[in-house]
Amino acid sequence: MFNFIKNGFLLLFILNSSLIFAQKSDINQFDANEERHGKWIKKFEGTNQIRYSGEFNHGQEVGTFKFYKKGNEEYPEATKTYTEESDIVSVEFFTPKGKLLTKGQFKDKKRIGEWIYFHKGTAIIMMKENYKNDLLNGLKSIYFENGKLAETQEYLKGIKQGENFIYGANGNLIQYYNYQQGSLDGACKIYNPQGKLTAEGNYKKGLRDGIWKFHENEKLTHTEKFPKEKPSVRKKK
After folding, report:
1. Could you tell me which residues come within 8 angstroms of residue 224 by beta carbon, excluding any fewer than 6 positions away?
2. What is the reported pLDDT for 89?
3. Does the keyword Signal belong to this entry (predicted)?
4. Higher local confidence (pLDDT), 4 or 48
5. Residue-wise DSSP of the chain
6. pLDDT of 8 above 70
7. What is the predicted pLDDT for the residue at 22?
8. Contact present, 213 and 202 (Cβ < 8 Å)
9. Can you tell me the distance from the alpha carbon of 136 to that of 110, in angstroms, rounded to the nearest whole number?
């Protein structure tokens, strides 16, 4: 009887060992061309914590890869999702508690399309950006934590170009600018928190230019001309 139990335990140990070995042999494998193939798991050097996990199809990443920060193995710090039909990679970044922080897309390791950022720990959008070839291109929008729009700015090839609107937390427009090649250039209007116009004029190459009008209680109070004339200096006789 004792020998039967002993032999049974031995057989069970052998079977379990074989199963564990088979499971281990299913990961971190190469194909006949020495390309990574199947499920891969990499750990931080000298530890048992996973650094990343994902799957390869003959050297090509497929599906979702999870990347972990050292010391936090409960939630991934980032994920990358690949498809065999496209060279676009969808990425997401997370807080240490697993809340979504940022999501967007890469192509050839460069940001493209719309990127969305969230107020930390919430599902409220903090900012939206548009990219082309890793440069801001198109509309950038910033939002308050109450969800209302705080600012919009147009970009072209990474440089401010076009209209810029800035809003108060109550939704009122408080500043309006125009940019050309990254510098203030064009019409400008400034409002108080109640949305009443307080100043208006133009910029040229980053400096105030021409006649500026200043208002109080919706009435014109005075004007100023820019650039200001330098006072003349009398020559000594």
Report:
1. 211, 212, 214
2. 98
3. yes
4. 48
5. -HHHHHHHHHHHHHHHHHHHHHHHHTBSEE-TTS-EEEEEEEE-TTSSSEEEEEEEETTEEEEEEEE-BTTB-SS-SEEEEE-TT-SEEEEEEE-TTS-EEEEEEEETTEEEEEEEEE-TTSSSEEEEEEEETTEE-EEEEEE-TTS-EEEEEEEETTEEEEEEEEE-TTS-EEEEEEEETTEE-EEEEEE-TTS-EEEEEEEETTEEEEEEEEEETTEEEEEEEESPPPPP-PPP-
6. no
7. 41
8. no
9. 11
Whole-angstrom CA distances from 62 to 51, 53, 76, 110, 225 are 18, 11, 18, 19, 63
Q: Which two tokens stand for residue 170?
A: 């109550």
- Taking the C-alpha atoms of residue 154 and residue 138, their distance in angstroms, rounded to an integer, is 5
Calculate the alpha carbon distances from 191 to 163, 208, 214, 224 in Å. Answer: 16, 17, 10, 17
Domain regions of the chain by residue span: 28-98
- One-letter amino acid at 171 equals G
Cis peptide before 96 (omega within 30 of 0): no
